Amino acid sequence: MAIIVDHVSYIYEKDTTMAVHALEDVNIQIPDGQFIGLIGHTGSGKSTLVQHLNGLIKPSQGTLYYNGEDYYSQGFDMKKLRSKVGLVFQYPEHQLFEADVFSDVCFGPKNLGLSKSEVELRAYAALKQVGLEDENFYQSPFDLSGGQKRRVAIAGVLAMKPDVLILDEPTAGLDPKGRDEILDQIARLREETGVTVILVSHSMEDVAKYVDRIIVMNKGCVLFDDAPKQVFRSYQKLEEVGLAAPQVTYIMHEINDKVFPVNMDVTTLEEAKNEILQAMKR
Amino acid sequence: MLRDITLGQYYQTDSIIHRLDSRVKIMATMLFIISLFMVKNFIGYIAAGLFLVAIIRISHVPFKFMIKGMKAILFLLIITVGFNLFLTPGEPLITLWKLTITREGVVLAVSMAIRLSFLIIGSSIMTLTTTPNNLTDGMEALLNPLKKIKVPVHEIAMMMSIALRFIPILLEETDKIMKAQIARGADFESGNLIRKAKNLVPLLVPLFISAFRRANDLAMAMEARCYRGGENRTKMKPLKYYKRDYLAYVITFAYLAFVISVGRVFLKI
Nearest-CA residue of chain B relative to A98? Predict the structure, then answer.
């Protein structure tokens, strides 16, 4: 069990008139190797939650554990945690600062106190993992395209070799092609390295194809925590909180109601196609 | 992390002080500061204190927020009091080793402390009860006569309001970038001064880039809406004096007159 979130609450601007309950009694267990989608509307507390996982915010109440160790106990190595639980922020390209791409990716591993050769090996591997071409390595990060910049920023976290990779809205502001590329790369990375991935998003469409488990947040609470199929079954409930199931869920429900009975528990276009073809044969 | 800074922050609530015209509040604050330097004896300070307490009560702003502003000048306050206490010549009261505390020193130190804290509290009432936009509007209106001597009053006011508007945005941005770099193992706290300054590079570079990007976007957005300086520009909410504003002027001047006359009538204590 890699990370346990135990009865965590968090209040912004505590003790003022502007106090906001960002998280209320959140309980989550994140085992090794899972691919998790964390979904919620703007302001549902998902970004606050992932910052807790990385130790950037201290909970107002409750406890966090990494491999059985309390984050805020004496002698807990926060720096080590941050290398093990990598967090890629929203619009991560805004944190690039070095003169060239390669040195920027080196920043993370260098902070871990590794040797120069190890740092460079990791940076090179990370840039390769996100699919950046060699010719871009010594360009200024500010000369790259939006999608490339974002990949450099993700590589910056990958180079720290985290066991848990958290990505906060990695596809925000990208065109459909850039979005698919990034998500495919993350999925491939997970297959290759077995890293635990937490993908934060407000779009079910994005995550449905990849994840094993979906956590839906609403107003600081966990609303659903289950396999995608189970979660999408309650698509009406999802709509109530301003979210939606993937379009295929709706299509399958319509077909089931108006044409012929089909299994509605499909999450991707591919599965939907197969299911409809089979149903037609029946 | 950086949310605690209350520099010139507006406290949202409804009170007659909040509704006053910003010109009145700026003028009254200036007159109040002047009055602090006209005070000659402790009766004057009591009057100023009562005036402040009354305004704070009417403004509905918790006293806690006023004190927050004081923290920034605490150091200055301690130094001022210390210097006045030990370095004023006069009738000695206590002698500690080589330092002598004189009667005049005590009087001066206490009055300096009162003056400084009243000054800060007085001006924080103004910023706590007036939105930054209102404040710059008021400044612009008050400085308007300077236009005659070719001072770009409108432009200065516009720059001020943009700068004020950007403070919270940039603070938020700083917070975000800081967190992002900490997540990449950056360390902003430990090390000596040079090390610390060096560690700020990963924060400052992205911050400057984003500030320039925002400035550029804003300039474009303003131009797209045909902004071209203050000429013939009308206001959505023009400043207008109401009865309460005249009343506020009367009360402020009455207070000032009282403080001055008290200084004249009573002898120095």
Answer: B202
Model confidence band, residue B189 (pLDDT cutoffs 50, 70, 90): confident
Q: Measured between alpha carbons, how far is residue B121 from residues A195, B24, B133, B261 in Å?
A: 55, 17, 21, 24
**Total-model pTM:** 0.75
Q: Give the CB-side neighbour count of residue A17, counting CA atoms within 13 A.
A: 9
Taking the CB of residue B163, how many other CB atoms lie within 10 A of it? 12
Of B56, B75, B43, the C-alpha closest to B16 is B56
Whether A137 and A127 have beta carbons less than 8 Å apart is answered as yes
E strand or H helix at B92, and its extent? strand B92-96
Measured from the Cβ of residue B3, the count of other Cβ atoms closer than 10 Å reads: 13
Which of A17, A86, A89 comes nearest B176 by C-beta? A89
- Please tell me which of the candidates A83, A97, A112 has its beta carbon nearest to residue B205: A97
ipTM of the complex: 0.86
Q: Do B183 and A54 touch (CB under 8 A)?
A: yes
Cα–Cα dist A202/A45, whole Å = 12
Q: How far apart are CA A181 and CA A189, in angstroms?
A: 12
Relative to beta strand A3-12, strand A164-168 is unpaired
- B177 — contact with chain A (CB < 8 Å)? yes
Contact of A8 with A20, CB cutoff 8 Å: no
